[in-house]
Amino acid sequence: MDTNQPNSPASADLIIKHVWIVTMDEERRIFRDGAIAVKGDRITGVGPSPDILQNFRADTVIDGTDKFVITPGLVNGHVHVTGEPITRGLVPDNTDWQENVFGWLIPTYLSQTPQDEQLSAKLAALEMLRTGTTCFVEAGTILDLDATVQALNEIGIRGRLGQWLQDRAFDPNDDQSELTKTAVAKMVAQQDRYPATEDTLLAAAPCLVGHNTATDELWREATHLAQDAHVGVTAHMSADPADPNYYLETSGARAIEHLANLDALGPHLSLTHAVHLDAHEVDLLAQTGTSVTHCPMTAMKGGYGATATGLFPEMSEKGVNILLGTDGANNGNSSDLMRAMFCSAGIFKDSRRNPNLFPATQILEMATINGAKAAQMSDQIGSLEVGKKADFVLHDRKRPEWSPLIDPVNQLVYAADGRGVHSVWVNGVRVIDNYRSTLIDEEKLYSEIQQASDTLVARLDRKSTPAWPVI
Questions:
Q1: What pTM did the predictor assign?
Q2: How far apart are CA 201 and CA 248, in angstroms?
Q3: In this structure, is the dihedral angle defined by the CA atoms of residues 113, 116, 120 and 126, taken in order, positive or negative?
């Protein structure tokens, strides 16, 4: 049992008893008749129900007999909370990476307002919470970080976010030095405004656009800031052959090797997509402790070539920390990380014809403790252990996909999805109860989102036409 043995029961704010608990602790223990005790924002006990009930007393006790499975809150390692949620489904599903990003997404991002971003962020956070994600790492706010943070604070999610950073001068008339100075100043200022502490749900971290958009100096500055502030750096890289080709042409080394030459690789860095790598790049990631955020739904929809070209099984074998992301609402199209779990469990089994690749247990690690590690928060979240933050999920067993229950990890990965999430706690606060947010008016948000989306789409130069007639 993960608690001391007091002479008299210790006080707790909440006890949930007689539930399956998948702890994700170092021993990967699963309690069939488990209980969890919460005091404030921390887990104070987790173990067999008789032990917890003997050692703790609480005013609020939830009896989950035959009702629930508890897991740690999931960690979404890469999601666009601004830019795309308000235009979900706008981009046709036959666009390749170049057309998707430069033909559709960037123009859409730049056509929005801070008010659009607030609505987008709130919608993305609601979808994540209602599907079991309690912490996210943002791809990068496009326009107004302060407005985005304000919106996210209202809904109660944990996250690392920041302004989307780039500084490379693509126009010969641009002042490269000034662009870099501005990007670095913005990065430092946001870290000062939103420092990472154990008492804050939302904190800043460098969010580089990545690809070929950052100069070497910006990479170095982001690395130094992240190491000093104990936060992570996130960046897109090698989703398409264009990235390694660019670095080969300009520096004589592929993308990952170029970052290694800058001393930019390391446990602070998580690279998103990382589809088009070679064996040497995989070795560099493993040697430096660099994380990779795999976004399987985006790779499949965008035809990135993850199953044909991606070296994810090789990364796994070498010990690279692989986590999961859902990406944007016009790429992965869903912020339900459990859907990404299912995809990740299957695609390489099929493409390599090897059912031993990415077992369900590893997939759940990728969605929890691996994500927490990449976000520099493994000491606080990612598993259910005494002293860690009370971020956890109640999955509803009274649903067909949860019946019968034999192996809860297999069930989580292969049968269930986020629609079965009944309740969610973040930082000891119940933010989802009986499938609904406890902090915001969902119906009002849906109405505002539709109105804002209609207005935004109407002012875009490029229109999306459904393949079938809408009458």
A1: 0.96
A2: 40
A3: positive
